[in-house]
Specification:
Elements (H helix, E strand, L loop, with lengths): L9 H10 L18 H15 L13 E2 L24 H4 L38 H10 L16 H20 L2 H8 L4 H7 L4 H7 L2 H11 L6 E5 L2 E4 L10 H9 L3 E3 L7 E2 L6 E2 L2 H11 L11 E6 L1 E4 L3 E3 L3 E6 L4 H4 E5 L5 E3 L7 E3 L2 E4 L15 E3 L6 E3 L2 E4 L5 E6 L6 E3 L2 E3 L4 E6 L5 E3 L2 E3 L6 E4 L5 E3 L2 E3 L6 E4 L5 E3 L2 E3 L6 E4 L5 E3 L2 E3 L6 E4 L5 E3 L2 E3 L6 E3 L6 E3 L2 E3 L6 E3 L6 E3 L2 E3 L6 E4 L5 E3 L2 E3 L6 E4 L5 E3 L2 E3 L6 E4 L5 E3 L2 E3 L6 E4 L5 E3 L2 E3 L6 E4 L5 E3 L2 E3 L6 E4 L5 E3 L2 E3 L6 E4 L5 E3 L2 E3 L6 E4 L5 E3 L2 E3 L6 E3 L6 E3 L2 E3 ...
Parallel strand pairs: 4-6, 4-7, 7-10, 8-11, 9-12, 10-13, 11-14, 12-15, 13-16, 14-17, 15-18, 16-19, 17-20, 18-21, 19-22, 20-23, 21-24, 22-25, 23-26, 24-27, 25-28, 26-29, 27-30, 28-31, 29-32, 30-33, 31-34, 32-35, 33-36, 34-37, 35-38, 36-39, 37-40, 38-41, 39-42, 40-43, 41-44, 42-45, 43-46, 44-47, ...
Antiparallel strand pairs: 1-5, 2-3, 75-76, 75-77
Pfam family, one: Beta_helix
Pathway: Protein modification; protein ubiquitination
Keywords: Metal-binding, Repeat, Ubl conjugation pathway, Zinc, Zinc-finger
């Protein structure tokens, strides 16, 4: 704004010079130029109104409205009015005084120039020429200081006309600065543009308050930038929209104006328009704006070193070949969804390229499209919507990026030193790969939407190593993320789901790190690592995939650690085809098939996992699978906790396998391996089952709480059971049957709710050096054609017999100690002739013989829970059968005088004492319900575990 000028008296000038007083420079009086707009007329009207009211002060501002033909006033010219030479001016500070100033009768010596001042006097000059620094220009508005009142000269005479003029001037100033309605001033100011509005705000405090009106600046802001909310530039390469209600600035629109005012605008149809009070360059094309920015160079940069700023307004920009090789910021400008309104489209070559030199370039809030002609013969496999080359690091922000090319990718970042920041972008609905990072490129990729692409959402290859955080990668028609050919990268907190193939694929030496991601609802699997793939998958949620949550094959060796892998429509982790890997500290549950499946010579390390509540089994090792499985907790699965079959040889150490709905560990069809130092307990079936040629080593385990026994070896099963603790099982601690031939050495088999070891149905085996004690039934029961070898065992403190051999069975007993058993030491049924050598049988209680001697019914001491061995008979008079055994004392007392028949010396309980015969037992008293069918040392149940290929 031009300074308000005045003509001082000669005496005033002489006196000032004589006294050497520092004065504010007063520009020479100039004549007014033509009014350039209605704003100039409005300002002139305000000036005239103030003069008509008798004011001695005139405030003049320059025009601020746009015009297609008008031109700005020349420097030093006040638009709309001229300044009379006989007006006495008072500085604004004096005009705001509560009392009128003293009048000595002489001419006033007070004078002021209304101007913008800063410490360097750079914000705006008295001629109205704008500063080259927008920041200084806007700061001057808020920090301008008023010129202090000058010291008044001594009163030399009293002049009444001067006194009256001074009073009129005071009254006019009072009206203008205090009584003129704010609405009138606001209306006048609404015709001004930003630069003149800043100048008038320096006139006085009232003007400054009104000139900072939020709605006034909002209107100005939206006329230039078109945004619905203010945009801020808090740091290089960062532009953020902020709601007015959340903004800490008193006037967010004005603050944003200040930060963005250096910008150049691309707005079609505006290039030839002139705006008084605004010096903003407009261009019709982006390339023209880039050329202008390159020509101006540092003059368009901020003090912080930001490059040129180019606003691209609403419209579709086609055919421009844009190569960015400098630090320039290009940002869309439009109301509503900005990016949807600003479209850069190209049919040949890449839509926009960033190359070496673009270290702090920025592209934001635009749509990039690559739309090649389908009939073109030009190959487009190296053309992209966005291409970022070597040695540059632009920021791409809030862009929509599309490509209809069926080859290549939509975004390509390649080359050493390529290190962009791509965030909040939408890379979707493309007919190829979404984002491709290759050839040692890096970069930061955050909060992007990558979806519905025809090929992979992301490719990473050739030693590229991007950092990708919080990206949403979904509904792709291929894999979600594909790393291959030694690609790397760090993927954190990404949501990857509903892709047609795997959510994440790793191949051919690739080694990504995937952390805190959610990989789910894949139409095949979650993670697929193959062909020597590596990678670290840490703390992810992998769930609800149609196939396995994690696939590892063909010599791949990833780390799968601290993930939650659950609710898969097949298995949790599937390792096959010589796969390896470290599977550690994962929570694997609720999968339709095995939690972990190992097959075809695969050899992973599986440890510290919790594998539970599967709809199938826990761990399934088959087809020559191997692996080290240690310190896992496997529980509450519907089928076996661990299956080992078809030539597999895993090592299981220090696992807790429990509470399953079938078997704990199941070896079948030549399943082998080692089972060492595990805790196996509380299964509905046996803790361990071995069958059909399986030959595992089972050493140092604790096996207890099985509802169908501790260990069941059947159908030709083998195995070495050594130094195990087998206790508190509902049936026998160890069952051996149907031609099975295991070796049991140095085990402790105790506190069973049935017998210790039960060998029957042609079972064999070598039982050597075992301690068998405190079992409810016989320590060792040998029956039905079996022939085991018992050597150096200690069988003691049993609640029934030590060793019982019955039903055509035989055995070899050498060097055993059998003592302190309730029903006797060695009990042999009729026709049994074992091989005995140097056994010590001593201190047994012989409770059966004592009961017989005392005339007691044997049922009194055995009830239906055990089967003591003694003579039993049948009564022909009572028409009993061989199934109805009668003890010798009941024959003597209850069936005295009847025709009776001796059957054999064998295991039974007395049916007469049990009350199952027609005559009441005279030795027992009240009859007892026949429970012969409830418990008869029932044979164990083989597993019904399903076979899965």
């Amino acid at each position: 704004m031009p300074s308000a000028s005045c003509t001082p008296s000669r005496s005033y000038v002489r006196r000032s010079r004589r006294k050497g007083v520092n004065r504010v420079p007063v520009p020479p009086r100039t004549s007014a130029g033509p009014a350039g707009s209605s704003a100039g007329a409005a300002a002139a009207a305000a000036t005239s109104a103030a003069a008509a009211a008798g004011s001695g002060v005139v405030f003049v501002v320059s025009s601020g409205s746009s015009s297609t033909s008008g031109t700005p006033d020349p420097p030093g010219t006040a638009s709309g009015a001229s300044i009379p030479g006989n007006v006495i001016h008072h500085p604004p500070y004096d005009l705001r005084r509560k009392s009128p100033p003293h009048n000595d009768g002489g001419p006033s010596t007070s004078s002021v120039a209304v101007s913008c001042t800063t410490s360097q006097s750079m914000a705006c000059s008295a001629s109205g020429t704008p500063s080259t620094s927008p920041t200084m220009f806007f700061n001057a508005t808020d920090n301008a200081s008023m010129v202090p009142a000058r010291k008044r000269p001594r009163r030399t005479q009293s002049v009444s006309s001067v006194e009256r003029e001074s009073q009129n001037s005071t009254f006019a100033a009072q009206y203008l600065l205090h009584d003129l309605p704010d609405e009138v001033i606001l209306l006048v100011f609404s015709y001004l543009m930003e630069k003149d509005l800043c100048r008038v705000s320096q006139v006085c405090r009232r003007f400054r308050s009104i000139a900072n009106d939020v709605e006034l600046w909002k209107k100005l802001y939206q006329s230039l930038y078109e945004y619905d909310v203010p945009l801020f530039n808090p740091e290089p390469c960062r532009f953020e929209f902020e709601n007015v209600s959340d903004c800490e600035h008193a006037n967010p629109w004005k603050e944003s104006f200040q930060q963005l005012y250096r910008g150049v605008h691309v707005r079609q149809g505006y290039q030839d328009l002139k705006f008084e009070g605004r010096k903003v360059p407009f261009f019709n094309t982006i390339q023209a704006a880039l050329d202008y920015a390159d020509e101006k160079g540092q003059s368009l940069h901020t003090d912080a070193g930001d490059g040129a700023l180019i606003f691209i307004h609403s419209g579709t920009y086609t055919g421009e070949f844009l190569v960015i090789d400098c630090d320039v910021s290009l940002i869309g400008a439009a109301p509503g969804n900005v990016a949807e309104s600003v479209i850069l489209d190209r049919e040949s070559e890449s839509t926009i390229m960033f190359v070496e030199g673009a270290k702090q370039a920025y592209l934001g809030h635009v749509t990039l499209k690559f739309s090649p002609d389908v009939g073109s013969t030009t190959p487009h496999h190296k053309h992209y919507a966005l291409e970022i080359g070597e040695n540059c690091s632009p920021t791409i922000d809030h862009c929509i990026i599309r490509s209809s090319s069926v080859v290549g990718s939509t975004v390509c970042v390649s080359g050493m030193g390529a290190n962009p920041t791509i965030r909040h972008c939408d890379i979707s609905d493309c007919e190829n790969v979404g984002l491709y990072v290759t050839d040692y490129a890096q970069g930061l990729y955050e909060d992007n939407e990558i979806s519905r692409n025809a090929l992979a959402g992301i490719w990473v290859k050739n030693c590229a190593s991007p950092i990708m955080r919080r990206n949403h990668i979904h509904h792709g028609r291929d894999v979600g993320v594909f790393t291959f050919d030694n690609g790397m990268g760090y993927f954190e907190s990404c949501d990857i789901h509903n892709n047609r193939i795997a959510g994440f694929e790793v191949k051919a030496g690739a080694n990504p790190t995937v952390v805190n991601c959610e990989i789910h609802h894949g139409q095949t699997g979650g993670i697929y690592v193959h062909e020597n793939g590596l990678g670290q998958f840490l703390d992810n949620k992998i769930h609800s995939n149609n196939f396995a949550g994690v696939w590892i094959t063909s010599n791949s060796n990833p780390t799968i650690r601290r993930n939650e892998i659950y609710d898969g429509q097949q298995g949790g982790v599937y390792i096959f085809g010589e796969g390896r890997g470290l599977i550690e500290h994962n929570d694997i549950h609720g999968n339709a098939l095995a939690g972990i499946q190992i097959r075809t010579s695969s050899d992973p390390i599986v440890r510290h996992n919790v594998i539970h509540d599967g709809q199938h089994g826990g761990i399934y090792v088959h087809e020559k699978g191997r692996g080290l499985v240690e310190e896992n907790e496997v529980h509450s699965n519907s089928l076996a906790g661990v299956w080992i079959t078809t030539g597999s040889t895993p090592i299981l150490r220090r696992n807790r396998i429990h509470s399953g709905k079938q078997v704990g560990v199941y070896f079948y069809d030549n399943g082998h391996g080692r089972l060492e130092d595990n805790e196996i307990f509380n299964h509905m079936y046996s803790g361990v089952q071995i069958r059909t040629g399986s030959n595992p080593i089972i050493r140092g385990n604790k096996i207890w709480g099985g509802q169908n026994g501790g260990v069941l070896v059947y159908n030709g099963g083998l195995g070495l059971l050594e130094q195990n603790e087998i206790f508190d099982n509902a049936m026998a601690g160890v069952w051996i049957k149907t031609e099975s031939n295991p070796t049991l050495k140095l085990n402790k088999i105790f506190d069973g709710r049935d017998g210790g070891i039960c060998v029957f149905s042609g079972g064999k085996g070598v039982l050597e050096g075992n301690d068998i004690f405190r079992n409810a039934q016989a320590g060792v029961l040998i029956s039905t054609g079996s022939h085991p070898i018992l050597r150096r065992n200690r069988i003691f403190d049993g609640q029934a017999a030590g060793v019982e051999i019955t039903n055509t069975a035989t055995a070899t007993l050498e060097y055993n100690e059998i003592f302190n058993n309730r029903f006797g030491g060695l009990c042999l049924a009729s026709g049994v002739h074992p091989l005995l050598k140097e056994n010590r049988i001593f201190s047994n209680q012989d409770a059966i013989e004592k009961a017989v001697t005392d005339g007691q019914c044997l049922y009194k001491i055995s009830s239906y829970t055990s089967f003591p061995m003694h003579d039993f008979y049948r009564c022909q008079t009572c028409n009993t059968t061989d199934r109805n055994a009668i003890c010798v004392n009941c024959i003597k007392v209850c069936h005295a005088g009847h025709t009776v028949e001796f059957i054999r010396h064998d295991r039974f309980f007395c049916d007469c004492g049990a009350g199952t015969l027609n005559n009441q037992c005279q030795l027992q008293g009240e009859p007892t319900q026949d429970t012969d069918t409830l418990y008869d040392s029932a044979a164990p149940v083989g597993s019904h575990t399903l076979m899965v290929n």
